[in-house]
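Collaborator request, handled under Task 6.
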Amino acid sequence: MGLSEFQKKKLGHVFDVFYDVNRDGRIDWNDFEDLIVRVSDINGWGKTGEKYNNGRKVLENVWGGLQKYADKNADKAVSKDEWLEMWTGEVEKVKANKSLPEWQVNYLNFFFDASDTSGDDIVDLDEYSKVYTKFGLTEDKCKTAFNKITDSGKCELNKELYRALWTEYLITDDQTNRANFLFGPI
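Structure tokens returned to the collaborator:
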């Protein structure tokens, strides 16, 4: 089946904002280097501590998964076309068993932990905004998105909900689904 135009738009948004960190139109290891520095700065991890080193190892795993599944021409970079082609197959697999690829689970766990700047296993609006504004979202877009994904604060954004929203974001074609706001308004 293939990706719908809406799914392509959402996955393109994630590519542009949360993977292609240096905004050069492709994903390569430099994006992950920039990401660990950015997240470390937000969280005060430093450049040599355990959290920084663990985060870097996770991102090496994520990059390895991306190369394996998306870098079809083996040029050590993932273009947006390669990215969308990879997700065309992965979305169907996720729909079939509601299970994300391991490298994607590692990335969502990393991103949750990076967003949970207080370490209390819940991401609140201030934390969400603190992190997501560093990726180019405005405070207003962060507030809009956070209110959508938490039903205006009626539910806590814990790791379980975050994972469910992440998975649903990837597979849903329902434009009204609250998961569509996990990475900011599209």
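The cover message to the collaborator said: "The mean pLDDT is 94. The first strand starts at residue 26 and ends at 27. Please let us know whether this matches your experimental observations."
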